[in-house]
């Protein structure tokens, strides 16, 4: 009888401490799949070129995030965009957010650290190290 009571208590404890991780993981996977689908749509009609270690800042326009894993840098013209996948992820650049670097270089390069912030409040939201820049050119 004592064994049955102990087993019942153990089952209750396990049931009460369930963290919901499988559901959270499934939700995160679902969001990641949506982000990749949105990126694919943004790159439709473009062909990837070889990854580059650096890109001249004068060649870059705005930015757009696709989740925490991808930053799309628009080019100065619509001819080319650059995809960057920071190795450790990066805070989302959506909702009016911007980024800054501490470098005075004229290029953004793999390994450069960017800080994501809200330009209105000035609040910093985190930072990340950039990965390689893959250019995507319009297919003719």
SSE layout and pairing:
Elements lengths: L1 H15 L4 H23 L2 E3 L5 E3 L3 E7 L3 E6 L4 E5 L13 E4 L5 E3 L3 E5 L6 E6 L3 E6 L2
Antiparallel strand pairs: 1-10, 2-7, 3-4, 4-5, 5-10, 6-8, 8-9
Describe the structure.
- The chain is α+β, with helices and mostly antiparallel strands and 140 residues long.
- It has one domain.
- 27% of the residues lie in helices and 34% in strands.
- The chain has helices at residues 2-16, 21-43; strands spanning 46-48, 54-56, 60-66, 70-75, 80-84, 98-101, 107-109, 113-117, 124-129, 133-138.
- The strands form 3 sheets. The chain has a 5-stranded antiparallel beta sheet, covered by helices on one side. The chain has a 3-stranded antiparallel beta sheet with strand order 6-8-9, with no helix packed on it. The chain has a two-stranded antiparallel ribbon with strand order 2-7.
- It starts with a helix and ends with a strand.
- The model is unreliable at 5-20 (pLDDT under 50).
Give a brief outline of the structure.
With 140 residues, the protein is of the alpha+beta class. The chain has one domain.
